[in-house]
Write a structure and sequence with these properties.
Blueprint: H1 14-22, E1 41-45, E2 48-51, E3 56-59, H2 62-65, H3 74-84, H4 98-110, E4 117-121, H5 124-141, E5 149-153, H6 162-166, H7 171-177, E6 185-187, H8 201-219, E7 223-228, E8 232-233, E9 239-240, H9 243-256, E10 259-263, E11 287-290, E12 302-306, H10 308-313, H11 333-348, H12 351-365, E13 375-381, E14 384-389, H13 400-410, E15 413-414, E16 421-424, H14 432-450
Helix pairs in contact: 3-11, 4-11, 8-9, 12-14, 13-14
């Protein structure tokens, strides 16, 4: 692994100074950058990001979980350039184009035909909005207007637009924007870390499902849909649960006539070991949202997949019975071309099979964490590995994420802790030596912060 000295005085970097003046960065308290400076990235190659001085960072979180096959991937680059010579964009209202048709058909085939209809947007939160609106509208069309409330999980995250934020259970967002949001039902998470002595992850999942059924029994006439992140609540400190929970909620949603929305924005596209996380449980939802890795981290693209039954409910001579939702860049040809290139890489390079082997290397790279007394709840699902640092070892838990981020930069790696949870979600192209070095670098950075 390359390891170079980072910018010696990043505050003197002209790009950083200009960014701090002109750019309002996402989910960021800008004042923190007075002491934790921005890193100015000029280019990337493979798993590496480079600043303008040529210093290298190993992208251990796939640039917010999007970059599956590395930066400047030749096959994806070529696909976008080829499409650019044909048509860069055309509105999808009243028009269509080959990339969006081919992508929709390939995704339907990957769901084995269960989710055969694709509605496009540009980001994950927008795909969640589509699923929520479509579920609500479906029940209106089926003469059940009271079914308009949603159920989400404790500690879940689904995006930051108003509809998506309503079904997000993150305290900082609730405190800031709660007065703007629709009321929802929030039920307990099946987080396996809740297991008591002698209990398994499956026990926790069944208990959470039993709690959910009590709500369904009481409120089924008012509930439109349940939304979940299958297997891993990513922004919720990488809380992982048993596939048994997915099996149970599918049974309950069928029993009580409630839609199941699977938010696979972060966990889809092979991240958990199967192409879709729901496949681990052998179930299919009524709606599935995809984004992030679907375009390989290249271009904004999101998709809401749904069933023939739901599609047919909107099929009518009446305009007002159609699904009333649109985005200017819906089904952008360049983004669809990038997604098609990603799917071709999955198939031609047997990525899912290779990831099973790479997941074992990832486990080996972090074997040290299981014997470190400062660490608890080491957990892994495919190409996601996480652990929690026991708060008793933290001088200031609120500062820990920034301190760990800063220390990791000094080790030549990019990680972004969530609270006291450290995780890696690397690109699928890491070599074994790079994976092992990543584990050692995280360990050194942690030792530095906790020293």
């Amino acid at each position: 692994m390359m390891k170079k000295k980072l910018i010696s005085d990043v505050n003197q970097n002209r790009w950083v100074e200009r960014s701090l003046t002109a750019v309002w960065h996402p989910c960021t308290q800008m004042k923190h950058h007075e002491t934790f400076p921005l890193i100015a990235i000029t280019h990337g190659k493979g798993p590496w990001l480079y600043d303008e001085n040529g210093n290298a960072l190993l992208d251990c979180i796939s640039s917010w979980w999007t970059n599956l096959f590395g930066h400047a991937n030749p096959r994806i680059n070529q696909a976008i350039c080829k499409q650019l010579e044909k048509i860069e964009h055309v509105m999808l209202a009243g028009f269509t184009h080959p990339p969006v048709i081919e992508l929709s058909e390939k995704l339907a085939a990957l769901t084995k035909g269960h989710l055969g209809h694709a509605f496009y947007a540009s980001d994950g939160a927008s795909a969640v909005e589509i699923a929520l609106k479509m579920s609500h509208h479906y029940w209106q069309l089926n003469h059940q207007p009271n079914k308009k409330k949603f159920v989400c999980l404790e500690n879940g995250y689904h995006g930051e637009t108003l509809g998506a934020l309503a079904v997000t259970d993150v305290a900082i967002f609730r405190e800031a924007y709660g007065s703007l949001l629709q009321e929802v039902f929030t039920v307990g998470s099946p987080d396996a870390r809740k297991a008591k002595l002698g209990e398994t992850a499956e026990d926790v999942a069944i208990q959470a499902a039993q709690e959910l059924e009590k709500l369904f029994q009481k409120e089924q006439q008012n509930i439109a849909a349940l939304i979940i992140e299958p297997l891993v609540q990513c922004a919720g400190q990488m809380a992982m649960h048993s596939p048994e929970y997915l099996r149970q909620v599918r049974i309950l949603c069928d029993r009580y006539n409630i839609h199941l929305i699977a938010d696979e924005i972060a966990v889809g596209c092979g991240r958990t070991g199967q192409f879709f996380a729901c496949e681990h449980a052998g179930i299919w939802p009524d709606f599935m949202t995809l984004s992030k890795g679907i375009s390989g981290g290249y271009l904004p693209l999101s998709i809401c997949l749904t069933t023939e039954k739901i599609y047919r409910a909107f099929y009518s001579d009446q305009t007002q019975q159609g699904f009333l939702h649109s985005h200017s860049y819906t089904g952008n040809p360049l983004a669809c071309a990038a997604a098609l290139a990603c799917l071709e890489i999955f198939e031609s390079e047997t990525i899912l099979e290779k990831n099973q082997i790479q997941a074992q290397t990832l486990k080996h790279a972090f074997a040290w964490a299981k014997t470190d007394d400062r660490i608890e709840h080491v957990r892994q699902q495919g190409m996601i590995l996480a652990f929690d640092v026991n708060n008793q070892f933290l001088r200031n838990p609120a500062l820990f994420p920034r301190e760990m981020f800063s220390a990791s930069l000094g080790e030549g790696i990019l990680i972004r802790p969530i609270g006291n949870t450290i995780y890696v979600m690397p690109p699928y192209i890491l070599t074994d030596p790079q994976t092992i070095q990543m584990g050692k670098s995280v360990q050194r950075a942690l030792n530095q912060v906790l020293a």
